[in-house]
Design brief:
This protein has 307 residues and is mainly α. The protein has helices spanning 26-56, 70-78, 83-92, 98-109, 142-147, 152-159, 164-169, 171-175, 178-182, 187-203, 226-235, 238-247, 255-262, 278-289, and strands spanning 115-116, 125-130, 133-138, 251-254, 295-297, 301-304. It folds into three domains: 4-144 and 189-244, Methane Monooxygenase Hydroxylase, Chain G, domain 1 (Up-down Bundle), CATH 1.20.58; 150-177, no CATH class; 249-304, 2-Layer Sandwich (Alpha-Beta Plaits). Helix 13 packs across helix 14.
Length: 307
């Protein structure tokens, strides 16, 4: 990880899965944005870095197409005038409303392929074509939730309470002025900042991925919904992952490590420190025990298929 004290640590990240209800609000947008980030992290490690290494090592390799959700992340939170930025902007306007927010989102993104416009102007909603499917969001209460303001009536009630515990619990809120509270980061900004920090930590780790597939929507035993399972396998990138594992070379060793580990399989190959050219020694071992399609010799490593 980032700090040396975490070098021999193991972390487990478990978050809410992708959410798509009959009515989706600001909370679902945040949760689904987090899932889009984790999907991009998965895509980056399983496909982008994998194929980049093959190219760098000059491995003969047939490119495998995969779904890249980067454009969805650009729409939600990265490119200028993204959805979260527009929500923040409208939240700062005293006269901003959920309808004015919805109008602004459509004005900026109606032509984006991943943005689903409302059917009529009377509806204050929008949709996003997420990697896991289309989700329609109801804009009602978006601004209130994003502002995350402490009710003045509730503040007054707590200030006047006879409970010493409650007064001490919200002491910091009492001391913060109204103007300072207005300038506090929005909920969307805080969420994005926390998520960016999490992704930076994950990027410095060696990740292992566990995909949980639901057999049915009702959490009932002995009920296998084939269509639902196939849909989850497709949108999670599992089909492409299986393909890249079958067609690729998931096992790889540096020449020196490979020679020290497998030299006994080939007569005449000594320890790596005794070999003048570990690349030639590794190639000799492979030719002795493997057939050509099961391995390739790169610039610095031996690449092996899974038998």
């Amino acid at each position: 990880m980032l700090n040396k004290k975490y070098l021999f640590s193991l972390g487990i990240l478990d978050i809410f899965g992708f959410e798509n209800f009959q009515q989706n609000s600001f909370e679902q947008l945040c949760i689904n944005y987090a899932n889009e980030n984790l999907q991009q992290f998965f895509v980056h490690h399983i496909f982008k870095l994998e194929q980049e290494e093959y190219n760098n090592e000059h491995i003969n390799w047939k490119h495998i197409a995969f779904e890249d959700n980067q454009r969805i992340l650009d729409l939600i939170a990265i490119k200028s005038m993204n959805i979260i930025a527009l929500i923040d902007e409208e939240s700062r306007f005293p006269k901003g409303t959920d309808r004015s927010l919805c109008d602004k989102l459509h004005a900026n993104h109606s032509k984006n392929d991943n943005f689903i416009p409302r059917k009529t102007d009377n509806i204050i909603s929008f949709g996003i074509r997420h990697f896991a499917g289309n989700v329609y969001y109801d804009c009602e209460n978006f601004l209130e939730k994003n502002r995350d303001t402490f009710s003045q009536d509730l503040m007054k009630l707590l200030q006047e309470t006879k409970s010493k515990f409650l007064r001490n619990l919200f002491l910091n809120e009492f001391q913060i002025g109204t103007e300072t509270r207005k300038r506090a980061p929005s909920l969307g900004t805080q969420f994005k900042k926390s998520l960016d920090s999490l992704m930076n930590i994950l990027s410095s780790c060696q990740p292992f991925f566990i995909r949980c597939i639901k057999p049915n929507e009702y959490k009932t035993p002995n009920n296998f919904d084939r269509a639902l399972v196939c849909r989850q396998l497709r949108y999670s990138g599992m089909m492409e992952t299986i393909s890249i594992r079958r067609k690729g070379y998931p096992i790889r060793h540096l020449f020196r490590d490979f020679v020290d580990r497998y030299r006994l399989l080939a007569p005449g190959v000594g320890p790596s420190h005794c070999e003048m050219d570990c690349r030639l020694a590794a190639d000799k071992i492979c030719k002795t025990v493997l057939i050509n399609q099961d391995y390739q010799i790169g610039k610095t490593k031996v690449f092996l298929k899974v038998s």
